Every structure is written in C-alpha cells, then in structure tokens.
C-alpha cells in the first residue's frame, strides 16, 4: 500500500486517530498517537519523538528518534468507539542521521531476515500463543481465578468462553489476521488462537496484534487476559509454539524431501541442529521472564530437555506428522517459546541459531521418536546426548552472554539493553521473600 492509497483507505474507514506503534526491547508496545490531519506529512517525513524514556533507546543527550511508518501494517482497532475510531500502524525506528536504530527490535528482526532474503528464501513462522482468561475483580487487582470450567477442546454453546473467543476471532480477522482455529486449551480458563503462518516479520507483528486485541476484547467482557507463561501453579502454563519452515522464491518448501524417510530435507536437519546447539542461550530470548522457567518443568506438555522428535510433544523440536501431498506444511515446531517474549527478538534469535546450523552443515543427533523425554533419568539422557534447558532466567542469561552468534544477531544496542534489563528483573525477583518460603520455613526454621 502506498501513502495515497493508505490515506484514501483511512478516510473510507472513518478513522480519526492513528496509533504509531513500536516496541521496547522487552516487547512492550509503545505508541505515539496522531490525529488524521497530520498523517500525510508523517508518511512522508516520519515522526520525531523523544526516545530517552523508552527502555533500551537513546541516552538522554541523543534522545531524538524518528519513526518511519510501515503502511502495510495499517489496521483499524475494532474495539475503538465509532466517534473516535482508531487505527494502528507499526513503525521502524531511525536515528537522527537517517540510519536504522540498532536498538529497535523490529529493525533487529528485519536485519536478520535480510540474510535469508539475500539467498532467495523466506523464513515462515506460525506461532500458537496460549493465554488465560481470568475473572475481573472490579479493580481490586487481579487474582488468577480461571473464569470458566471448560476442558481441552470442550464445546458448550452456553459457555461464556466460546462467546468471548468468537468475538476475539472476529476482531482479529477484521484486522487482517488469517485466523485458523481457536480452541480451549488443557487448563481451566486457558485458550489458544492460531493464525496462518507468515513471513517472520508479519508473524511477529501478528503476535503483538493478537496480544493487545485479546486484552482489549477480554476487558470489554469484564475479564483479564494474561499471556504470563505460568500464572497458576499445578496446571499447564501458556506457551507460544512456533511452527517454522524455509521457502524458496518459487514457493517450494525447502524442508521437504520426498526421498527422506521422515520427508525432511538435509537443510531442515541442519536448521534443527543449529537451534538445538543454541537452545540454552536462545532460552533467554524465547522464554525471557522469571516466570518462564516455572513453565519449563516436567509434566505440563512444555519441553524441558534438548532433543527433537517426530510427533512426540515432550521434545524441544517436534516434526508434525507428514500428510501425503502436503509438502508445503513440512515444518519444525519449536516448543519452548512463550508469549512473554518480544517476538521480534525471539524470531531473530531463532533464525540466527538455525542459520548457524545451515552455514556450518550441522547434523542433529538421532530423533527421539518413541521416547518420553520426561521419563528419562539423568544417566539415560547423558547416554542419548540430551541436554537440559536452563532452570532459571539467570542461567539462561549467563548462556546468552557466552553465545557469540546470538549476541551478533541482536546487535550491540539491543543486546546490551536486553541483558541489562533482564539481570535487573532477575535481581528484583531474587530479593523478594515469597509465600512459598514463608509456608516452608517460617515455623520449622
Ligand atoms: N500449554 C502447553 C505448553 O505450555 C502446550 C500444550 C499443547 O501442546 O498445545 O507448552
Ligand atoms: Mg496449545
């Protein structure tokens, strides 16, 4: 869409305001709001803003940053009221010298994607963000009380969850997201909405769109939507499994090989080998919160050990079953990402790890097809060469600090700010005295 078409569309849609959006390194969506009459100029020259107060952006003395609008990301926000209708446009961030700012997460992903487009390839991702809907508490804070009593894929026409989920899917489709399915997940109050795979940049934009749309529509129904990885102890957490593939410029799936026993190409195997090799450091990007590591524990369908397999859901990378004739759907499902991640940085890291595998012709270990990895003891895991994901954010950050490939992929500014912010988050947590400690030690100590 060019600027003229966009202005025409905006007028037709009767939009009054446009939110110009970007994220900080943590994945928090930031917005500069603009009334319609200024948009034409903004599309031409960009919009100056003060970046100094945004996590990871400029230092005070060089705080001027410029937003460059990406017109292809225009979408009307369906929950905004008719009389002050809003749309959003995602933006890229530039420095005053007209260079892409290397602390901009969307720019980081774009830089990584360039490395595959140069080869004539597209990196596709189909993310599956899971989330909980909790009962609202009339402004008295949020208590994680699941709002429904449904189970996995349950259907009941009276279920409020079905009503809310239908509204969510309608809203997302009106914003141009190709929703494939929405269903109840395993845990009480837990849901998943899957959308069609897209190139990594669009997939990351879609994840942000899905998250804030789900939150806005849930709030209209008196519910709180949460993408926290493990909000309730003892039941499944929320993941964001990512189905990945590489296509060539003719639209052929480079992961497919008719002659291979698993129908998986050598290129796909190297891709997988790279991600397995970097998994412990990649954890810091795809599972980036203190709480992420409460999800990555045995027994809740989330991965814990570093192995790959066909079908097997306990593996870190799962190859879904191949259906005759569906060469395009050959893919590798990475199961440890969760929706608390910044999708731009997570996808940039996933791609960097995979390309390292491809460029160095790595081969993965044997797939663990009929093994439940949760049931292996340490000795057996060692024998099979199966490593373990980090057990905490601190462990993951220490791994990231040692991983030259991922550091280079993030770029200096994004890497430094990310790591600084995440160590602060870890320290903040470490200093707290938790309910668990009081229950465990107060009386017996
Ligand atoms: N909720 C599980 C997780 O934390 C995944 C369930 C599923 O396989 O969809 O990864
Ligand atoms: Mg799921």
Please identify which CATH superfamily of the largest domain we are dealing with: Glutamine synthetase/guanido kinase, catalytic domain
Bound molecules: glutamic acid, magnesium ion
Q: Please identify the structural class as seen in this structure.
A: alpha+beta
Task: Round the Cα radius of gyration to an integer and report it.
Answer: 22 Å
Major beta sheet summary:
9 strands, mixed
Low-confidence stretches: 152-158
Provide the helix percentage: 25-40%
What is the CATH architecture annotation of the largest domain? 2-Layer Sandwich
* N-end to C-end Cα span: 66 Å
Number of helices: 14
Number of strands: 17
What percentage of the residues does DSSP assign to strands (E)?
15-25%
For the residues shown, what is the average pLDDT?
89
The dominant shape is globular
Number of domains: 2
CATH-assigned fold name of the largest domain: Creatine Kinase, Chain A, domain 2
Tell me the quaternary state: single chain
CATH class of the largest domain: Alpha Beta
List the helices and strands and how they pair.
Layout: H1 3-12, E1 17-23, E2 29-35, H2 39-45, E3 47-50, E4 64-69, E5 75-76, E6 86-94, H3 105-117, E7 122-135, H4 160-174, E8 179-184, E9 190-195, E10 198-199, H5 200-220, E11 223-226, E12 240-247, H6 266-277, H7 279-286, H8 292-295, E13 305-306, E14 308-310, E15 317-319, E16 332-334, H9 343-359, H10 378-384, E17 387-388, H11 393-401, H12 404-410, H13 412-430, H14 435-441
Parallel strand pairs: 1-6, 14-15
Antiparallel strand pairs: 1-2, 3-4, 4-6, 5-6, 7-9, 7-10, 7-11, 7-12, 8-9, 12-16, 13-17, 15-16
Helix pairs in contact: 3-9, 4-5, 6-9, 7-9, 7-11, 9-12, 11-13
Bound molecules: glutamic acid and magnesium ion.
Magnesium ion binds next to β7.
